[in-house]
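Thread amino acids onto this structure.
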């Protein structure tokens, strides 16, 4: 009988060694010894399976990838040094010069830079589509469109892509559906169930959960991962075994952590919705979210991030942030510690004002990545910062 999510996250482990350790050790080794010259030859000729060199594979990275595959119900995957190397590899490792991507407009700032500043150098082009208007997507498909890349919920606007519709469009037009599932994590949302061919994560966020490591992962259909493995093996975005060990341990607690992140975020969103200093709050599991029904359909809970707006703009947001006493001002998210970020002046500052506004990043937009402190203390800090105006 297939085991439940939490059990698989804990019980998927690298094989025990002759030392009978209970917790998997860190395999900090760049290379692996061959039994004989013939063994080395056979490994390189792919006639035998086994570790050769940690840029190709390592027991810790393999364990981490196997766990994510278990959670996303994916066939195979590769671990990468960061979320951005996962995003970049998942596109550059598969597309050729002359290919085109369809992209949901609301995406992470660096992904936007990769599309607009880097991939264009190799004549890989893209068209942004309105993520809230699925009927418009197919109109943008060209004969050379090969991939549909989406992020849901989006960072930081918390807009959602209808994964079922995205799956249909990809299937009907023979596109690779590539989903950045960073904000939801595999605990809240499994895009593979809607036909995603690839799922990418910044493991730096909720997968780590304690703000210690940078990491990424791409999982998906075997034949696509085979191509990506070749790309990664030779271009070298490998995750370090130590980071893989940390991240694999973190996955053991992903389910319980996400439950608490989401409970805290929903409670905070409800509190803020009633506060007169704020013009609006956006959180997928608040009924006021414009895509609330869709969130309920494709996400188990609302996630650990909420955004809200000060109509007075940048100065009001900055003043609020500077009055916070406990929350950390930081660009990261998905940590045990609650983090406040002002996207327009930091993570999304490289976009033009117009580009920011088209994805809902107003000057007063403020993002809170809700941590695991007691909700009363989180609310108290925000309350004093809002009330002391
Ligand atoms: C949605 C999303 N994708 C990708 C990334 C990039 O991940 P990393 O910082 O691990 O490279 C981020 C980082 O914030 C993100 O929020």
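Threaded sequence (389 positions):
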């Amino acid at each position: 009988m297939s085991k439940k999510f939490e059990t698989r996250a804990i019980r998927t482990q690298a094989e025990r060694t002759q030392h009978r350790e209970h917790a998997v050790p860190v395999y900090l080794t760049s290379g692996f010894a061959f039994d004989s010259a013939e063994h080395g030859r056979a490994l390189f000729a792919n006639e035998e399976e086994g570790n050769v060199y940690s840029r190709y594979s390592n027991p810790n990275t393999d364990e981490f990838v196997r766990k994510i595959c278990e959670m996303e119900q994916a066939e195979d995957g590769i671990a990468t040094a960061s979320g951005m190397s996962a995003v970049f590899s998942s596109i550059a490792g598969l597309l050729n010069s002359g290919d085109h991507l369809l992209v949901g407009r609301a995406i992470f700032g660096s992904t936007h830079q990769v599309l607009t500043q880097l991939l264009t150098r190799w004549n890989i082009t893209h068209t942004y589509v309105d993520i809230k208007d699925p009927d418009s997507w197919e109109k943008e498909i060209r004969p050379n469109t090969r991939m549909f890349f989406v992020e849901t919920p989006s960072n930081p606007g918390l807009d959602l892509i209808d994964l079922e519709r995205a799956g249909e469009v990809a299937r009907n037009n023979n596109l690779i559906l590539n989903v950045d599932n960073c904000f939801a994590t595999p605990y809240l949302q499994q895009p593979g169930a809607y036909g995603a061919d690839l799922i990418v994560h910044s493991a730096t966020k909720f997968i780590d959960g304690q703000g210690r490591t940078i990491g990424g992962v791409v999982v998906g259909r075997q034949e696509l991962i085979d191509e990506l493995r070749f790309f990664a093996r030779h271009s070298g975005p490998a995750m370090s075994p130590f980071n893989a060990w940390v991240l694999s341990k973190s996955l053991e607690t992903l389910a319980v952590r996400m439950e608490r992140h989401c409970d805290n975020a929903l409670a905070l969103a409800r509190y803020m919705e009633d506060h007169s200093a704020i013009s609006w709050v956006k959180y997928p599991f608040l009924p006021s979210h414009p895509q609330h029904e869709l969130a309920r359909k494709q996400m188990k809970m609302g996630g650990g991030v909420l955004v809200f707006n000060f109509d007075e703009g940048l100065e009001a947001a900055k003043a609020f942030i500077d009055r916070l006493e406990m929350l950390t001002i930081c660009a990261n998210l998905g940590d045990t510690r609650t983090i406040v970020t002002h996207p327009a002046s930091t993570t999304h500052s490289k976009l033009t004002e117009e580009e920011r506004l088209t994805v809902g990043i107003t000057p007063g937009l403020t993002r809170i990545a809700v941590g695991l402190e007691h909700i009363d203390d989180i609310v108290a800090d925000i309350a004093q910062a809002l009330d002391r105006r």
